[in-house]
Each structure stands twice: as C-alpha cells, then as structure tokens.
From TrEMBL:
Cellular localization per UniProt: Cytoplasm
Underlying gene: arcA
Superkingdom, natural source: Bacteria
Pfam families according to UniProt: ADI
Catalytic activity line of the entry: L-arginine + H2O = L-citrulline + NH4(+)
Organismal lineage: Bacteria, Bacillati, Actinomycetota, Actinomycetes, Streptosporangiales
Protein name: Arginine deiminase
Broad EC category: hydrolase
Biological process according to GO: L-arginine deiminase pathway
Active site, UniProt feature: 384
HAMAP family the record matches: Arg_deiminase
Recorded coiled-coil stretches: none
Length: 398
C-alpha cells in the first residue's frame, strides 16, 4: 500500500533520482544559483548513488527511479500536453523562442523529452533558431533550465498517510521539479486514484521540512524554504482529511546550513531523533490543533517537549551528533543529521560523519554507511535523496 505514517516504519518502496546529465550543466558561474556548493564529478556521483540504491535493495526496499516513472508518464498524450506549455511559460523566452522550443519538445519521444525536462536545453541544442531573444542569447544559455537538485527527491513530494503532497518549492532553481512529480502522480498508472494533499502553486512547502513524528503527529520546519503560510495550508488539509491531529510548527534559522528541518533533526526510532546539539534543546515549536473550525496555535515551547506531548510518550530521546562544537558543526554541514531510517533503529548515513555514526551505534542504531563525497556537493544526505512511497504503518502495529 502506498503511503507512510512515520519516519521509521519498515521502508518498502522509495523514489530516487539517479543523477545524470543535469549535473554536467553545473559550472563555476552557475553553481550558486543552482544551489550546489561545488562542481561534482558526475561519474563518481553516479557510482555513489548506485551504491546507495544497492544498499536499499539489499535491505528489501523497492527502488523506483524518477526518470523511468517520468518516461512512462510521457507516453500519455495528456501528460505531454500538460507539461510542455508549463515549461514554456518561462517569461525569459518571449513568444518566438517559446514557439520554436515548443516544436522542439513536441518532436521528442518520451525518453528524450524526459531527459530534456530534467537536464535542460541549451540554445545551441535547438535544431534551428531565429529571433531577437535567440540572437541575443549566448549559445550556452538555457532555453529550458536544468534541474540538478532533482537528486533530492525528498523535497518535491512527500507522502502523508495514503495521500501525496506535491510540494511548492521556494527556490527558483527548483520550482519546476514539482511539476514533474505532479505529472507522475497524476498520470502514471502506478499512482492511479491517489489523492493529492498539496499542489505546487500553493504557499511554499518543501518535503525536507516535513517530519512524520508519529501517526497523527507531523513536525514542519519553517525557515528558508517552507513559509508559515505553507504550514498553515498544510495544517488545514491534514486536519480536514483526518491525517493528523497535531502539527508542530518549528521555526528554524533562515540560512543555508539549516535550509530544512531534516538538516538538523531526523528520526531513527519511533521515539528517538538524531539532532544537531546546538539546537537540540533550544529549538521551539508551536503545537497546532483544530478547535471547531479554527486552527488553535499554542504558545512556543521546547520542540522536544511539544513533540513528546503530541506523540503521547514520556520523552523523545536525543542522540546528539558530535563531541565538541567544531566536530558537531562540521558533521551537521556534511549531513550527519540527515539519516534515512529503513526500519526502527536501522538507518542509512554518510560514512564521512565518523563521530555522528559512532554515536548512533553506541545508542544501538544499526548504521548503513554510504559514500557521499560527490553527492554531498549539492548539500543533502540520505534522507534528502529519498522519497518514501511506502512504509509499513506504525499505527497498524499491535
Ligand atoms: N531536504 C534537504 O535538505 N534537501 C537538500 C536540498 C539541497 C539543495 N541543493 C537545495 O538547496 O535545495
């Protein structure tokens, strides 16, 4: 069954994106705008990603690839008719270049169209070109921008219960990603009948900010990416559909190191989180519940207290990630807190976060280590690189 009600129920199916030609578009001139800290070695990034996928399969997880789902989806005429105009609505193109680009895209078979939607299209790759915009562009300029951050499938959709929230990404370099995930969930037969809980044109909300703390309890970070208005919209929708009774709205610092809640906190057991020490005891949360027709927003209290109350446990256990502040800061930056749980007490983590992983193991967590020196140049770890499509429900356990 599709969906999830926790971060730690046994992972059955996950959607990944194997990085490809879109990473080859990164240059020292555009990497900041495209949200990468360095220029990755693409072949090695693919090897690291393949090893990640293999580790998941070795643990019984079905791996779906976004590219393959998109190719299948683009076999359907309605899907093609929906996505091509959406790509051309970019105001940079102007009418004439948009017409040319439309013809180019319409001529592509599903495989090439999927590839172009992901890796973009440079002016020089158009078969023919004319007009003011075309003439004034550099031949390397993009007519369709590449999506190197598609690798981080966590952010462009998130399953809550049996519904999928197709997110609304805040950074212009990522906005188009959720048009692709929406297309897949709308037209791919595997997802027929799945109800959408959120849409890309609503207030900004990114999957990396959404943590399913326990059945009925969702924490949502609000900072650089997810806005308070996005949290409010999600609250209304999860309460209206009975998918949650409490949402914890968690303000996080608006900076790159903490762009999403999952950069500072992830769950490794039903009542245990791995957390960045400087924020573990200072992070605050507002518990949001429904009171009649209105949202009831409680005063801020320590996140861990608010979470324990909502989850109905005595306390949320914390494994912190480093012995000294410098190590903790280095390993937080390198996604040490960004683990992907495959089951309670089993988590995938980047191998380079030596101290954090040692701490996890000392606390009884089985750590599956993966290499990520190249993958990490996009600033995301195992949780960021995975969208759980199906997890064993914790609410179904006796
Ligand atoms: N959930 C996450 O933290 N995802 C990582 C996203 C990294 C990407 N380069 C970004 O800036 O959006």
């Amino acid at each position: 069954m599709n969906g999830a009600d926790s971060e730690v129920g046994r992972l059955a199916t996950v959607m990944l994106h194997r990085p490809g030609a879109e990473l080859k578009r990164l240059t020292p001139r555009n990497n900041d705008k495209l949200l990468f800290d360095a220029i990755p070695w693409v072949g090695r990034a693919q090897e690291e990603h393949d090893a990640f996928a293999e580790a998941l399969r070795d643990h019984g997880v079905e791996v779906l690839y976004l590219t393959e789902l998109l190719q299948d989806t683009l076999e359907y005429e309605e899907a093609r008719e929906e996505i091509i105009p959406a790509v051309l609505s970019d105001r940079q193109l102007g009418d004439r270049l948009a017409r040319l680009t439309r013809r180019h895209l319409e001529d592509l078979d599903p495989e090439d169209l999927a590839q172009t939607l992901i890796s973009g299209l440079a002016r020089e790759e158009l078969k023919t070109g004319r007009g003011l915009v075309y003439d004034l562009m550099d031949r390397h300029d993009f007519v369709v921008d590449p999506l190197p951050n598609l690798l981080f499938t966590r952010d462009s959709s998130v399953w809550i219960g049996d519904r999928v929230a197709v997110t609304s990404l805040a950074m212009p370099a990522r906005a188009r990603e959720s048009l692709l995930t929406r297309l897949i969930y709308t037209h791919h037969p595997r997802f027929a009948g799945v109800e959408h809980l959120y849409e890309p044109w609503l207030e900004h909300l990114e999957g990396g900010d959404v943590l399913l703390m326990a059945p009925g309890v969702i924490a949502v970070g609000t900072g650089e990416r997810t806005t308070p208005a996005g949290v409010e919209r999600l609250c209304r929708r999860v309460f209206a559909t009975g998918l949650a009774h409490t949402v914890l709205a968690v303000p996080i610092a608006q900076q790159r190191a903490t762009m999403h809640l999952d950069t500072i906190c992830t769950m490794v057991d039903a009542d245990t989180v791995v957390m960045y020490p400087p924020v573990a005891y200072s992070l605050q949360a507002h518990a949001v519940t429904m009171s009649g027709d209105e949202l009831r927003v409680a005063d801020a209290r320590p996140f861990l207290d608010a979470a324990a109350r909502a989850m109905g446990v005595e306390r949320v256990k914390v494994i912190d990630t480093g012995l000294d502040p410098v190590t903790a800061e280095r390993e937080q930056w390198d996604d040490g807190n960004n683990t992907l749980a495959l089951a309670p007490r089993v988590a995938v983590a980047y191998e380079r976060n030596v101290e954090t992983n040692a701490r996890l193991e000392a606390a009884g967590i089985k750590v599956i280590r993966i290499a990520g020196s190249e993958l990490g140049s996009g600033r995301g770890g195992p949780r960021c690189m995975s969208c759980p499509i199906s997890r064993e429900r914790l609410s179904a356990l006796p």
